[in-house]
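Lab manual, section 2.4: Encoding a predicted structure.

Procedure: take the sequence of the chain (764 residues), apply the prediction step described in section 2.3, and record the output as structure tokens. A sample record is shown.
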Amino acid sequence: MKLAPWRTMRGRLLLLALLVEATMLFLLISNSLRLLHDHMGEQARIQAEQIAPILNAALVAPLAQFDYATVQAVLDECHAAKGVDYLAVMDVKGNVVAISGWPTDKPLPTPDESFNLDATEHVPRYDIARPITLAGQALGTLHFGLDLTQIIAARQSLLTQGVVIALGELLLSAGLLALLGLLITRQLSVLTRASREVAEGKLTPSPVPEGNDDVGRLGAAFNAMSRSVNERVGQLTEARNQMADLAEASKQEHARLEALLAAMEFGVLFSDRNGKVSYANQAFARLWRQDATTNITYGISLRELLARLEPSVITLPDWRQENGKLTSISCEIPLTDGRILTMQRLEVCALEHEVLGQVWIFSDVTKDRFAAQQLIAAKDAAEAATLAKAAFLATMSHEIRTPMNGIIGMTQLALGTRLDDEQKEYLQLIRSSTDSLLAIVNDVLDFSKIEAGRMEIEAVPFELERLMGELLGILNASAEDRQIRLVSEVSPSLSGQLLGDPIRLRQILTNLTTNAIKFTEQGSVTITAQLGAKRDENRIEVQFTVTDSGIGIPEDKLGSIFQPFTQADHSTTRNYGGTGLGLAIVAHLVELMGGTISVESELGQGSTFRFTVELRHAAAPSIVTAVSRAIGPTSPTGSLRILLAEDNLINQKVALGLLRKRGHSVTLANNGAEALAIFMDTPEGFDCILMDMQMPELDGLEATRRIRAHEAGHKRVPIVALTANASEADRQSCLHAGMDDFVSKPFRIAEISEVLARHLAKPE
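Recorded output:
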């Protein structure tokens, strides 16, 4: 009887061999799968732990610089690699600044507490969160997930292939089974050795054999993982080198900054947020006379350092902290050794407006302050000299006008007597000379006012046509003497009353017209006034032109004729007279009246002066204008009772002679006290009082005040100042004292008659 094959020894041996082989194969496959499972899980976990520091190194620099574009680029590059399902970076505030592989509108997965290769989730994944730090300071958080799909699929594939191989081996011979077992064992040994090397820290082990079977593919996967780790190690090394380069560049920049601060002439001190000194340059120690090696130590308390500096300070600035906060201040610090330091204290802030500390900047301004004090002293001295000069000129004007009043007055009286032609000619020459001398005195006074800044412009109503007519009436005689035709033209658009300073305007026109007549041998002088281009509701611009056919001005002198003491030629003074101040005064008056002046001239062809002034339309045309003062009333004053207060003997005779010649009754008082007594002792009173300002015992101002106080409630008597003080300040003093008008010496009888007519007669 034939035994069944499995009953034979061979069969039994074969069965036994197959059983043993199957058992061994089962154990081998089971053990291999277990080892592979543990190995793959360990590799996946190690990969996750290795990826985190690599990404931290790659992301820390751009994240610290808020370079989110670079952060995004790094995440995109990492996501392209196999095994990474998604990556995301959050800042310290929890805001996602970059993400790759995960929807932006979906919250990030919760990190896994531990690695689990047997995850049953729909997409097997290992979720990890690691902080990103720099020098111990948190910059953000890295979130990423490792895709475990391939590992689980590989494990399942290996299991299936192992079962198939096991069944196939049962059908092969024992030798083939042994050989196959030997090959499998050898491959696993290589993988085990490589795994051990990795576990021992060698991240780039030698390549393991590869093949098309499961173990070979496992070797290929292991080799691929080894190459990926090698690439990441290279990237990490490159990032480390870049960080080293950045550190070296930062070190060089710090060295350059320290060299710059050390070379500065002003002191610089840095303090941190904790009130500690973090830096001080040599200039700081030099300014405060401190030993930089002993007194200024880095890390010293700012309070302690300031306490060391306080004994050197005369007036301690408020450089304390307010409410625990460092405040920004700027002040001057006077020192006990006479020096003056300026201090600026500014906050040092980070990009996020976080206060990191303060910078203190000190500078020695002693020389600048001394120079400024010298400049102020020089300015005060110059102003004092100008005032002294003005006072001197005013005094000299008074002293000159007093005898000139006698000369002019006596000349007027003499010209009113019977004279032969020769005597009359001599007296007329005297009058002409005194007129020239008076014009020079007036120019000098006006120029002194300009230099002292005391020239003022009034705003009173006047009629331009009347002013021009009076100007021609005054200057026509001198023009006729030289056989020159004098013409004036006023635009109809300038009719009616205007608001301005007619006295200064007439002074400008008189000066320019007098010069035109003086420098014209034959021909004509034309004065025109027309409306300028600039005008609005309140102001108008009036343009004046004075044209002559005289000798002209050289072209190289046109730019300087408006400078004081300047004339076109050195022979001008000899031939025509003058001080060279007239045009300078004219230019300044034009400027004060809001205008400009220019000149056009050609030698032998004449000159044209153009100037503009700003005027306004007068609101009340019925007001008596300033120009009308020069025109007397239409009805005579008749004989008047006049009280004359004058202390100078010559001026007494001049005034008495001129007034009595006009038929007036004059009572003389030698000083203010006498004038007050006569006024109070005369029951019938006086029609007018002519009062000098400067008199012994009682001056004219105080005498006027007492007269006004005495006549309170009674008829007011007009009081007119008759004085050699010709300034505007003197005029205002007289008016404030109670006087009604002001006539400066030297005077003419026509001026006094006009004043008397204005205050005592009723116009028609």
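Check your result against the sample. The chain has five domains: 5-230, 264-364, 376-447, 459-625, 632-760.
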